[in-house]
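Postdoc handover notes: sequence design on the structure in folder B. Input tokens:
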């Protein structure tokens, strides 16, 4: 896994990382984490290249393909508020993933999943989404 970080302002940090595919049949993933005050803005997309292409993948990515926001539950134990900001008719993976991340990290989560519906619907699409969520959890754990 390769990681680059940039400080934009004193309270905002952006890091981009490449996740190698867990299986040869799956594409690699690129994650961009923007750490804000008590919230995270996350983007995940697929990469046909390697770690050296991660910045280009982010620049060419689509923020509004499947984008959701979720609040942590208050009080704990209930479902926190969440909504889709943009989504296509064929996929809605960002909303439940954002809810799980908000509940786990107790912060507001903006999550954009830029994985084509054809890839998600393909035989190993769910495994790719699981890899994406695991990568996001690992990245956020490092920031906590």
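Designed sequence:
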């Amino acid at each position: 896994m390769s990681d680059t970080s940039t400080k934009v302002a004193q309270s905002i940090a952006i890091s981009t990382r490449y996740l190698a595919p867990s299986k040869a049949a799956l594409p690699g993933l690129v994650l961009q984490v923007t750490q804000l005050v008590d919230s995270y803005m996350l983007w995940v997309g697929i990469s046909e290249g390697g770690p050296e292409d991660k910045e280009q993948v982010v620049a060419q990515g689509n923020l509004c393909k499947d984008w959701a926001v979720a609040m942590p539950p208050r009080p704990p134990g209930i479902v926190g508020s969440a909504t889709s900001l943009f989504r296509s008719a064929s996929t809605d993976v960002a909303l439940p993933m954002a809810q799980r991340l908000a509940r786990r990290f107790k912060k507001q989560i903006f999550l954009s999943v830029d994985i084509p519906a054809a890839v998600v619907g393909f035989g190993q699409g769910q495994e790719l989404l699981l890899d994406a969520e695991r990568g996001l959890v690992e990245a956020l754990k490092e920031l906590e």
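Context for whoever picks this up: The first strand starts at residue 2 and ends at 9. Don't rerun without checking with the PI first.
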